[in-house]
TrEMBL record:
The keyword Glycoprotein applies. This is GDSL lipase/esterase. One of its GO terms (cellular component) is chloroplast stroma. It holds the Pfam family Lipase_GDSL. It comes from the Eukaryota. Belongs to the 'GDSL' lipolytic enzyme family. Residues 1-32 form the signal peptide. It comes from Arabidopsis suecica (Swedish thale-cress). InterPro entries: GDSL, SGNH_plant_lipase-like. Keywords: Glycoprotein, Hydrolase, Signal. GO terms for molecular function: hydrolase activity, acting on ester bonds. The keyword Phosphoprotein does not apply.
Length: 373
């Protein structure tokens, strides 16, 4: 695989300071100390939070250079390093979430499990690994965990208790693939946005099912600016671009979805009065990277670090990151996009810093709220 040299080694002072601050904040012991009980997290979603589920579940190869930074090897994550969910776990000083389908490595799932699988969507609902299927997997996981914990006193501490499930955080980050696939099938903007109520209904139904299972603390991510992804930009022939070079129709659909998701959260706060439901504006965070890329030290914000084709997007659907003929930039920290769809570790670190700031959560809530007693 070729290495693509694009920029010099001189970083802006602001960029270095910002990334260093992000990593410092995420590793502060005082944040972890805010948890007075062992944090337990269950995550549902797609490739934005898949920590190895696709590889474990389907044996799909995700090879190097994925994982080349923090892990120094591919772990099934679609990034050069850690994902947003990894940084959020580290902020609590808890282990990184293991994929539910990963049966190796002495996995005990004592701090939760990750049901997210790359490519997942809400529709159709009965196809692996839709959100509906992920919630069914959770139900089985919970039932089996409690059964094993009750079978022997020596096993009680090795599995999550009923209180552990009740006090856990339930994270959902899904919907991006529903919108993207509608456009990919050739559907118009109006046809795509007509699907949004169905997508929202599936997410709402899943949250209610998790509530019925005892869940009371929910953390809901909206979707990012799809129209700014190098993959979409390289594959759409007729481009209606905004001032920053992003596809207007894709971003407008994402915005409508996010508005519906926000409204759904408002409804659920009324319907499930003893539940805490936090809505996170990931779109605003990620779009700020594109609109203010120079301030963050990102160059060519619409270009993938790992891919094929060079400027303007370095993405070719036939030669994607990690496959023969693809190239990879030397400094992923100068890029927002890792492979044309997913973010670099540096971008993910800054997203995490902003999520932890509480400026993008509604209502403003610290991430560790669920593990304080």
């Amino acid at each position: 695989m070729a290495t693509l040299f694009l920029y010099s080694n001189t970083f802006s002072f602001f960029f270095i300071t910002l990334v260093s601050l992000a990593l410092l904040i995420l590793r502060q012991p005082s944040r972890a100390a805010s948890c007075t009980a062992r944090p337990v997290i269950f995550n549902f979603g797609d490739s934005n939070s898949d920590t190895g589920g696709l590889v474990a579940g389907l044996g799909y190869p995700i090879g190097f250079p994925n994982g080349r930074l923090f892990f120094r090897r591919s772990t099934g994550r679609l990034s050069d390093g850690r994902l947003l969910i990894d940084f959020l776990c580290q902020s609590l000083n808890t282990s990184l979430l293991r994929p539910y389908l990963d049966s190796l490595g002495r996995t005990r799932f004592q701090n939760g499990a990750n049901f997210a699988i790359a490519g997942s969507s809400t529709l159709p609902k009965n196809v692996p690994f839709s959100l509906n299927i992920q919630v069914k997997q959770f139900s089985h996981f919970k039932s089996r965990s409690l059964e094993l914990a009750s079978s022997s006193n020596s096993l009680k501490g090795m599995f999550i208790s009923n209180n552990g499930f009740k006090n856990a955080l339930y994270m959902i980050d899904i919907g991006q693939n529903d919108i993207a696939r509608s456009f990919a099938r050739g559907n118009s903007y109006s046809q795509t946005v007509k699907l949004i109520p169905q997508i929202i209904t599936e997410i709402k139904s899943s949250i209610k099912r998790l509530y019925d299972e005892g869940g009371r603390r929910f953390w809901i991510h909206n979707t990012g600016p799809l129209g700014c992804l190098p993959q979409k930009l390289s594959m759409v022939k007729s481009k209606d671009l905004d001032q920053h070079g992003c596809l207007v129709s894709y971003n407008s659909a994402a915005t409508l979805f996010n508005q519906g998701l926000d409204h759904m959260c408002e409804e659920l706060r009324t319907e499930l009065r003893d539940a805490t439901i936090i809505y996170i504006d990931i779109y605003a965070i990620k779009y700020s990277f594109i609109a203010n890329s120079n301030q963050y030290g990102f160059k060519s914000p619409l270009m993938a670090c790992c891919g094929y084709g060079g400027t303007p997007y370095n993405y070719n659907v036939k030669i994607t990151c990690g496959h023969k003929g693809s190239n990879v930039c030397e400094e992923g920290s100068r890029f927002i996009s890792w492979d044309g769809i997913h973010y670099t570790e540096t971008a993910n670190a800054i997203v995490a810093m902003k999520v932890l700031s509480m400026h993008y959560s509604k209502p403003p809530t610290p991430f560790h709220f669920f593990c304080r007693r």
